[in-house]
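Progress against Task 2.4 (sequence-to-structure conversion) is shown through the following example record, which the project officer requested during the mid-term review.
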Amino acid sequence: MGQPVPIPDPPGTTAGRPPLRDRLTVPVLAFGGILMAVMQTVVVPLLPSLPRLTHSSAGAVSWMVTATLLSGAVLTPVLGRAGDMYGKRRILTGALSLMTVGSVMCALSSDIRVLITARALQGAAAAVVPLSISILRDELPPERRGGAVALMSSTVGIGAALGLPLAALIVQYANWHVMFWATSALGALGVAAVWWAVRESPVREPGRFDVLGALGLAVGLVCLLLGVSQGGQWGWGSPRILSLFLATFVVLGLWWWQQLRSELPLVDLRLVSRPRVGLSHVAALLTGFAFYANSLVTAQLVQAPKATGYGLGLSIVQTGLCLLPGGVIMLLLSPVSARISAARGPRVTLAIGAAIIALGYVVRIADSRDLWSIILGASVVATGTTFAYSALPTLILRAVPAGQTASANGVNVLMRTIGQAASSAVVAAVLVHHTSLVGGLRLPTLHGYLMAFAIAAVVALMASAAALTIPGDPAPDDPRRAGDRVQDARDEALEGA
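Structure tokens generated for the chain above:
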């Protein structure tokens, strides 16, 4: 046998170092995740002024948030599955492109119908994080994967913390369309960067896309989230809300039946039925609920008038700056979270993170009148969220086959979205039932805010308990995963039969 022939380094590389594009993979994917979170939050400072700017009602304007929530919930698992089948970079680029097109539409129009449609297109960006995490699993060596996944998970909080004050500053000092031109430019940069720096993953799940399953899931999720998000406005006992929940039960029941009988289902329910996967989804739902209450309540509380006795009367820019430390914390602590997961396992990291979230709400209950204590409590919640959100995708990565990483993480993100929608509905219901008359306006009382904190703390403890019930999480090459591999082989044999 001849001597091995050395292969020269590709152009643009240096000895012992990866090509420039490979070194930029993680930063570029993280930039895409931050863009997604910024896109979701930039509209918040505009909401009070949009009825006047668009000559429409406040109810119509609220659909600019609802449309993004609904489309994101529907498209996240669908695009995740498409990424597993047709190429993750291709679908990721498409999702960012839809987000950018939506931004351009918002920049060009003041018609509320166009704006709602554009925001629905932007909801596709919700699939960016699960697709990126799947790419990281395929492309990075194990020693780099944990930190990169933790950073990718933290981009949700980092982008939200950056987006609010940035958008508020633009809205305050420039025409509101400028904000969407800025996000359009950033979106175009993100699309180009992903196309240039991210390799197309060679891991594919062959077969035909489950169109019927995608339609069934879309209808069921729209009915569920529409009922949850609009229940407070339409009345929880109104015929419309009850009809939506009944339709949810029927449609998702039929969808479940169809998925179990499909040769190539959109969501592999056999995987979901495994405790390592199913309990991770339950923990994701509870963590999403607990985390989201912090953002909702903090923004309202610090902007409340001083006449309430507890409000600080801050502007939207000042409010964004109050939330900024949480984003910085998520950026700095993501490597710490990865090290804890590597040493103790992601389920321990998730349990610790959820417990810290509960501790943050205890701080909020102890004192929510002083700015420093509000920032401290919100920062503690952000710390726990960093640990919890970075552990969830790692749990999924260790529990599912490589060919289903994006779709499984898409379902996990979907569960977080449902938890956030439920949190919004519960917080709104609590605050509506605890109001007082201040200057002729009905405003939430401090007791209402404290009750919302208490509910979120209890849910966070439930998430911590759920994390501890997840079976042990050995590394992918651990012999204890033999049982999972046997089950995968059985599932494949059943599908073949």
